Amino acid sequence: MQRAMSLREQFSLLPPEIQDEYLSGLEDWQLEEMARGEWWWTQRPNQVPPEGTGHFIFLALAGRGFGKSRAGSEWLVDRIQKHPYDTHGVPTEWLVIAETLGDARSVCIEGPAGIQRSLERQGIIYKYLKSPRPMIIFPDGQKIYCEGADNEDVGRGYNAAGAWLDEICKWPKAYDSWTQGIMPSLRAPLFGDHPKVFITTTPKPDKLIIDLVNRDDGTVYLMRGSTFDNASNLSSQVVAELKRQYGNSDLGRQELYGELLLAMDGALFKRSDIEACRVQAAPDDIVAMCVGVDPALTDEGDEMGVVVMARTRDDHLYCLADETVRLAGRDAALHCWRTLAAWGGDTIVLEENLAKHWMIQVFRDAYFELVGEGMYPENTTPPLIKIDARIGKRTRGEPVAMRSQQRRLHHVGVFEELEQQLCLFTGWDGKESPDRLDAYVHAARFLMKGEKNKVTIYNPMQYLPKLDIFG
Question: Which of 249, 411, 442, 458 could bond 292 through an S-S bridge, CB–CB 3.0 to 4.6 Å?
Fold first, then answer.
């Protein structure tokens, strides 16, 4: 497929005499805008949402370095100029939301392809307030508010005319943030139009993205692109290194070509299996419940996988919660014991290897600390089961994945980050595995092992032919 090119790129391919003829027919203002790299001159067709009022969401799924930030900032500045006031004459307000407030500021506002660059290039007057929260204010009262997607309430309370949502696949609770906070805030009445959203992200198969891609009601316009579409604006050395690192791998299809992959070659778990067995609530006949734990080795921001799972009387497994946190040491152990108590579980299942051996004693000490607080009974021992880490990852994971394929492993609700790890991890033959996935597998294996301890007593007399002893 031929790469979409900007007018500037197309112009550069013309013979010099054609270039001269083209330039001679332009006005001075057009030449000035070309010289300063105005967006109409440098944009590629696949970076620009279509005109018109039909769509509500423009979803740009593209690889790294595609130019998503430039596309988002230029789109928002253009929308503000087209809609300075709502139908009540009130200056419009706009949202810029990234994974963190720092990202919204450093990438979307101040970055080399950010909103400030666009405003200054066009000579638009504005005031930039950096605290207490980044905000851009225009002379007539229009405002751009910056937010970090810390929770599902982000965006709540605004009367927004539009929003730019950046790298939404990295947000901790993207679906909830959209449905509970952002979407209801897009309610400003506009002249001849309605509020719109531009989402720019490298795709990952989370619930929100899958939902938007599958819509067929005309509200979502899907835009796609790859890293190599923007190769002329990137370091050739970096482009070569990206090709070398990712090659023709599935991860390369996602990170470089912007493909939405619902399954990876080599992954044991399939999203179709998970979706087919998703439930809203677990049955009442739970016979065993545990908390699987994959401890973090350091307190330097590593996550500790904590997954709550149960088994019912018919030997179906139910993932009840993903309580993963960024904690280590005593705080991590206390979190796990409190999770077990909150869910009424029976056991904590913890991987033990040489690197994590010290965590066993930390967990024991934390348990007795909570005994002293009355959370657990006195004169009891920690219900802690150690998982042997010498068993290979594939050997551990395959029986659990088989349960999923057999429709005997259910998720009670949606666990976006856990499910991404399950469906995208391919390093079962030796690579370091993700923490949530490990905790999930530990819990499932322990509950499956408990099935072997059941005994069924048969009455041999029921298989003998009935005798009419009374003749």
Answer: 442
